[in-house]
Amino acid sequence: MLKRLAILITVLAASLSLWVPAGWAASKPMHGMGIRGPVWRIRKPVFWNKRLLGTRTRVVYAKIGHLHLTFFIFRPRAQSAALRPVVVYIHGGALKFGNAMINNLKTPHNQLMVSVERSLIQHGVDFVTVNYRLAPVYRWPDALIDVKHAIKYMDTHSVRLGINPDQMAVMGDSAGGELSSFVGLTMDPRHRPVVRAVVDLFGPTNRRTFAVAWRRRHGLKPNPVYGVYTWKRVRRESAVSYVTPNAPPFLIVQGTRDHVVPPSQSKLLKDRLNAAGVPVREILVHHAGHELVAKAGPIHPGIPYIARQIEHFLYQQLDVPSFRNVEQERRVGG
Predict the structure, then answer these.
(1) Angle of helix 321-333 relative to helix 303-318, nearest 10 degrees?
(2) Residue 23: is its pLDDT beyond 50?
């Protein structure tokens, strides 16, 4: 009797998973109560964060077979005839997970991105968030190729999109921070679009650290993102390998208790940029783990301060007129 009941519950659970609407996430299977097989719990639906400003437009920037690669562009509701500066955001997820959505989950990372997006829109700066191909179906450097393709698309269609490709910055978190660094360090500064600034939020910079850990655990087993690690490949796939004096200014944000991407990764990038004479600033966030999650106490500085520093850095590097006027008024008034 119990065996039949277990089978019936499993069948009902499988049927339920077929009609869960898009945007709803199922948790990992739970095992227990003597039931063999998964019993799925439905989590709360995940949607775009309602606090994001501007008008959102979906753009298909490439087609690969049946796959449509997209980005979402957020524009100020009151748009001028002039082309607007643009900040391109690249999401994280170990190059295996995630998407361009800035969702409604109340995490420190989402609070930071919402704050930055709102300020950008209020100052007349477009905000673009990009989807790219993910492992293990697609391997490195497909993700980087996609992000660069999206940026080239913005340049080619800049007039239609209303953006100024000469006033472009890139930012990203974790794997997105790594991709942002690669974009800033490998885009040719002699050709459009010109990446004027990079914001790297706790992104990996030196693949050697992760390759050593992988080889210790898995030997020569292929990594789902990079395949079989070789030292030549590790160097080629490390952002720090591409630092030159032509690199754009960097702002690096790093948690001191991040055990996923250790602080040494950000320090190495900062040191290489300093040695090349590239303007760089690092914000160390104390008590912050990966994605700025608090560890053993509240993080310091807090999310509002970090957001303001990112916004000011971007406005200064992109020479945003509205921000420049506010700063001039503040100095005169002070």
Answers:
(1) 110
(2) no
